[in-house]
């Protein structure tokens, strides 16, 4: 039996980059589409959403936006702890997201699809059309202290947070 010896490289492997804190994915990377089942019937469609079954949190608050003028801009804030699911129950609109590192725009137009938005994301709603109704499922009850309404403050907080991703 013959033994084959592979040449040893004189270059040491590059050690992984050290992180300054625990690794956490950018908040925007944790946002995602959710698809809700549809029960078709001649009388109309039915979709069901249950806390901790179809979404990963207990729903503490539900609110909806309606009678929205086409040129309106809504939201324009971030949350410190709140997780939300946005659903277009009627019509359509754009949801613009910014975590201070990356940006994304999603188009919502179907009642059986929602978009999960994590905390620490600046969100803006616009481009409303077709008599839109925006339903929002929220993980927490209303708390004004959870809102970040100043873009400059959000950008400062995002800059402090981004060192975790390097």
Walkthrough of the structure:
It is globular, with a radius of gyration of 22 Å. With 166 residues, the chain is mostly beta strands. The protein has a single domain (29-165), classed as Jelly Rolls, CATH 2.60.120.10. Strands 1, 2, 3, 4, 5, 6, 7 and 8 form an 8-stranded antiparallel beta sheet that branches. It has one helix spanning 151-162, and strands spanning 32-35, 61-65, 74-79, 84-98, 103-108, 113-117, 122-138, 147-148.
Q: What is the H-and-E element order?
A: EEEEEEEEH
Roughly what is the average pLDDT, rounded to an integer? 87
Radius of gyration: 22 Å
Shape: globular
Q: What is the CATH homology-level superfamily?
A: Jelly Rolls
Range of strand content:
35-45%
- Helical content band: under 10%
| CATH class group | Mainly Beta
Number of helical stretches of at least 4 residues: 1
Measured between the Cα atoms of the first and last residue, the distance is 49 Å
CATH architecture call: Sandwich
Can you summarize the main beta sheet? 8 strands, antiparallel
The total beta strand count reads 8
CATH topology label: Jelly Rolls
Total domain units: 1
Uncertain ranges: 2-23
Structural class: mainly beta
